[in-house]
Amino acid sequence: MLLTWVRLIHTLVFGVMFGSILFLLYCGITNQLSPWTAIAFGLISIEVIIYAGNGFRCPLRTWAENLTPEGHVVRDIFLPPWLAARVVAISTPLLGVACLLLLVRLLSR
User: Fold this and answer.
1) pLDDT, tens only, 10-41
2) What does the radius of gyration of the chain's CA atoms come to, in whole angstroms?
3) Cα–Cα distances in Å, from 93 out to 28, 53, 64?
């Protein structure tokens, strides 16, 4: 039961974080900066600090691994396995582009 809660929390955190990345990308493309841009950037910054501080491993993944019975496949998030395996590879470049666009927008003001 606890593993289900970990997966649910991980899925919700993923949704908020990926949504924040997409929002930052939108803000950078459209040059529509607002207090929500700062909030999204702050959320992503906290996520990056936690991820990097944990040796570039998601702590929720580690928790799910510890809760998964020996010999079973670790499922730490309610996403298709092919997508779950590529979350970092997809979100990192999007975040990089968003940050570059936002930096250009801020410097051009």
Assistant:
1) 999 999 999 999 999 999 999 999 999 999 99
2) 16
3) 14, 20, 26
